[in-house]
Automatic annotation (TrEMBL):
InterPro entries: HATPase_C_sf (IPR036890), HATPase_dom (IPR003594), NatK-like_C (IPR032834)
One GO molecular-function entry: identical protein binding
Record has ATP-binding as a keyword: no
Ranges for domain Histidine kinase/HSP90-like ATPase: 334-446
Transmembrane segments: 6-25, 57-75, 84-102, 114-135, 147-171, 177-198
Alphabetized UniProt keyword annotations: Kinase, Membrane, Transferase, Transmembrane, Transmembrane helix
Protein known as: AbpK sensory transduction histidine kinase
SMART domains: HATPase_c
Superkingdom of this protein's organism: Bacteria
Pfam families: HATPase_c_5
Amino acid sequence: MTPFLQILVMIFSAVVDIWLFCLLAQIRPSKLDWLLLLALEAVLSVDLSNFQTYSSLIYETALESLLFCGYFYLLKKAGPFRQLLGAGLLYGIISLIIQLSMKVLVSLLPLPNYFYFDAFMNLLLPLVVLALVIWQRQRITNLLTDANSSILVSLLAYLYFVCCAIGVYLLDDEKPTEVVLLFFFLLIFQAIFLAVIYREIVHIQRQLLDQQQQEALARQQEQLIKENEQLKEYAAYLDQNEDELRRFKHDYQNILLSLKVSAEKGGSQALIAELEKYTSNQFDQKALRKYPDVNHIKIPELKSIAIAKLAKLYNDQIDYSFGCESEISQIPQTNLLDLVRIIGIAFDNAIEASQQLKDRGGKGRVEAMYYQEGDDFEFMIRNRIDKSAADPDQLAQAGYTTKKDHAGLGLANVKELVRRHDEQMLLDYGPEDGWFNFSLTLLPENVEEEA
């Protein structure tokens, strides 16, 4: 092979190596990255050029993998370590399989000029591999980043060391064609076997996860159905009686006022005292405001969660108000279960914060409302807080909680649920003037198309 051809093959090989790794790791290197990596590749090739053995290719591949992973992880912070490690192992496996494939071809085919064949194959095989990686790069990225990536990386590490062991045995010494083919097909069998194992492990994990999720959803659905039936029955009772009770209270207060005036003129102070005592015993002003405006909510799921949380506020003796002035019978099409979960979490956070504020001697209060204007639906809630309240970004982190033996998934769960509907739900929260404000706006699904 002429020096010019050797340099050409070396440069092409270095460019393909960098490009292949970056494709596997989903990295877009800058011009400076290209220059630095090509320079390091050149230094590495020169250092290993003194070792005129095929097994030196194995060491070179291993050093290249470490070089790429270290450069992009330690210096560039270009991605998760597991993804970069998986890309490095996959790159090493591909490089070694290319070299072993060339060994098999040399053993099988009579070649008049091996050097030109070597140069040709060093140009052709990497291009074929690059084309395949570009074709399947999204699938490769998904495999290296999904929940089962740790299993895949472990299997790739095993396959890489198998490639190295077979490469050290086959590449340096001349082996009979039968031995070369035996070990090469043994390697292919190992790769297929590991692929089958990975697929089965992932399949079993998904089955277990689906079973657990289905059982949890079934329990949750059963509980929701039970609670909804109870709350619907109670809500129907409230609808029939709330407005009549308010009108009666208003009329009664007017009657009481006239009786007080008449009694005062007649000097019947005892009558006045008796009437006031009767009023105090018969009408608990707070009880009359236990479920304000709930009868205006015509959507059972939204009404049920409001009733449940207002009852908890009332029973926990937390000062509160709730408003729903306009009748709500229709909201933008969405997953009602997700919407109810968000509203429930927001109420729970406000109740918890109010209880803690009361425990510290403060005065807790929660104010919530449903609001609808046009096609939008908005839920707003706020609660009093003190200066020791946690930062909202900290509250939104999964696992953070101010509650003992609690999972700490409140606002983190809300953010995840909203992310599922990011084109339809707008979330805003944070402290302001001694209050923690939480607002969720539900938009029609076609709002962007109309815009």
